[in-house]
Amino acid sequence: MKKLLLSLMLFQLVACVGDDSDTGTAGTVAGAGIPAGAGMPAGAGIPAGAGTQVIAGTPAGTPAGAPAGTPAGAPAGTPAGVPAGSSGGDTGGVIDFDKGVGGSAGGDNYGGEYYGGDYYGGEYYGGDFYEYDAFMPVPTACPDASLSGETMATIGQNELFQLSVLYASDDSSEEREPASFRWVILQKPNGSNAMVWEREGVMDDESTSDAIFKPDLIGQYVVQLQLVGQTGNVKPSDMCPSAGDDTYTITVDTSRTLVVQLTWHTPFPVDPNALSTPTSDLDLHMLSANRGPTPTNEWSTDPVDCYFSNRETDWGAILESDDISANGLEKISMLAPSTPANTSYLVGAYAYRIHQYATPDMPVPTTVNVKVFNMGVVAGEFNKTLNASKSMWEVTEIIATTPQVEVRAVDNVYGFEPASGF
Q1: Which residue would you say has higher pLDDT here, 57 or 229?
Q2: DSSP-derived secondary structure for 285-329
Q3: 339-384 pLDDT per residue, tens
């Protein structure tokens, strides 16, 4: 009776080993994806040449190359805390890390779903897990930006228009800026030679976000911002299509009776020990005809002054553009100056800040330009170099003789600080 039972047990054991080898056939052929030295226990049913070397002294059932402490029967690289399975029986199968069940070394583990199937060749290393998880992220981010100000505007011929970015993020990190900001003219009137500049007369620097656009003919222009990320992704492109919010549409006509335009430029540090580039912020002001006899009492005072704190006045002046960069552009416009005739307006450029961050007491010469446009034509232009913060330049007096204007130079500079502090 004992011999009969022993014979039946041996028959079942042989059958189980055969089943495991059959289950793992797809991955157990020599050279079929089982790395040499994989450490297969001897007698696991793997054909010769499949890397079944066993190191002398290795505990029974431990794969070759496994670090010390690896449980018997566990494949090399088994995560800590995962129990090892049997080393050659019919308990082998799919590795289930959630349940902590290790598979057979001679069945599905090495020859089937672990090394040759779903684990290494399928959902884990070759499929969904590695494609979408943090181990090997697929770069799909796009650089992005939000434009500043009105994206549809009407300006006069030869006026400047500020192309400005409110916020930008890179394709590698939202905390970084894209590598390149490229402003491209998509549409312009036939014969136009309009250009995008860093500042008037200077080619655009694509490493900086803002730029200046100067049209030259009556008609419509469309200017688009194109971004290049630090990792090379471009927007707009097939991968990063435009959302339709990356363009300015600019119409140029002669309907604007009066426009005053302020630009300035602060050069790079003249101090070789400076830790940063200079900073400058100039503000454009225009006093109404109802101002008092002493301008110093009127600047930055509502409602007679049109400036950044009183952008839309009840007497017709509108501050269209307000900038704080070292290559600024600010504009005040009036569709129809007040009547009666010979009504006058006083224009001022206030140097709120002209210095270096690292050496704030050191003045930085800043070139300032003011232009007055009448019906799209330059009626007057004025230039000055300002050297100190908290200084006011009274530029010009404009006499309205609707629809024309007369421009008279004032050119008076003095130290000044409004009562409001601006």
Answers
A1: 229
A2: EEE-TT--S-GGGTTT-TTTEEBTTB-B-TTS-EEEE---STT-E
A3: 566 688 999 999 887 765 556 566 678 899 999 999 888 999 999 9
Sheet order of strands, 202-203 included: 161-163, 211-214, 195-199, 202-203
254-274 pLDDT tens trace:
878 899 999 988 776 555 555
Q: Are residues 266 and 413 in the same domain?
A: yes
Q: Which domain holds residue 130?
A: 16-26+71-138
Residue 316 domain flag: yes
pLDDT of residue 387: 85
Residue 125 lies in a domain: yes
End-of-domain residue from the set 188, 218, 253: 253
Last residue of a domain, one of 199, 223, 253: 253
Residues 194, 219 contacting (CB under 8 angstroms):
no
Same domain, 90 and 185: no
In this predicted structure, the answer to whether residue 140 has a pLDDT above a threshold of 90 is no
Report yes or no on whether pTM surpasses 0.85: no
